[in-house]
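Wait, can you check?
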Amino acid sequence: MIFIASTTMGLESVVKEECLALGFKNIKVFDGRVEFEGDFRDLVKANIYLRCSDRVFIKMAEFKALTYEELFQNVKAIEWQDFIDENGEFPISWVSSVKSKLYSKSDIQRISKKAIVEKLKGKYKREIFLENGALYSVKIQCHKDIFIVMLDSSGEALTKRGYRAIKRLAPIKETLAAALVYLSKWRADEVLLDAMCGTGTIAIEAAMIARNIAPGANRNFAAEKWSVIDEKLWTDIRDEAFSSEDLSKDLKIYASDIDEKSIEVAKENAEKAGVEEDIIFEVKDFKDIESPAKYGAVIVNPPYGERLMNDEDIEELYKDFGNFCRKKLAKWSYYIITSYEDFEKAFGKVATKNRKLYNGGIKCYYYQYFGDRKNGYKH
């Protein structure tokens, strides 16, 4: 089988590295997705372990279709009966069509649904399907007349780890927060600081990475109710995940924010994630922070213009933050994600490198400033 790990644009290489680390085979990278081959064990592992992917799909087919008849026949040719139970619910839950002859989403949806029904009639010998059982959401993507038909094994997006109960203003997705930590090359023996932490997502994801806590171990997935996958697989891989957690490290993660309510929520989230002992949370303006170590990494998702503040306030904030970093964290590395185009000018220093990413659909850049690192470690 071929599986698809969908991802936010810009994070494909990070998800590829995760897939390699999990031992997946024949990995291929495309815009917004990483494909790999495997069996149901790999599908379960992908859902439980991937930190930076949005969802995991089974790739059911890829074909060219220029007419609705071609679409119907190609969708009908898929072996749906091998996956979908007699009482399974199988909505065409998402359709996109770009630069293609067949562009009507509602028509693609209607004809594809009809084709699946026709296929299932042959197996189950019935005309009407109740669809009151397990969920088998179908996603169809078409680009330049090439259709990709997928079955969603995740259900809720993988960013829903289960620890973030209350959302505050402009939160960063857990999947993106984990990617920022990976891209920073931060290591568990280094100090980490998020000086504008909001509800603590970056710090929590960093602690989970350091502790090797699988992000999906404590949540459920749509495919857990599929009869085609042995329940024991889910139990076994969760057990493996729990037994692989590393509780031995002494982590030094600091997270602070000027907003008291955000810090209260951050503490609750960290407790739910099982990392409350690993993060020191404080209500504090970053200007009042004293450096906790000579070397370390700062990772922040500060306010941007689109989200919270006007340009003048943003510029002042970034100028103050640049001064803080240079004065109090002179040898540290800094990593800042923002959509503000003149960030480097306001911050007062050109980044060592930057990377285009998307945060909630907003185009951002991840500005990376490489400082000195203990033990001679380099990027």
Observations:
- The longest helix spans residues 105-124.
- The mean pLDDT is 92.
- Residues 16 and 38 are 15 Å apart (CA to CA).
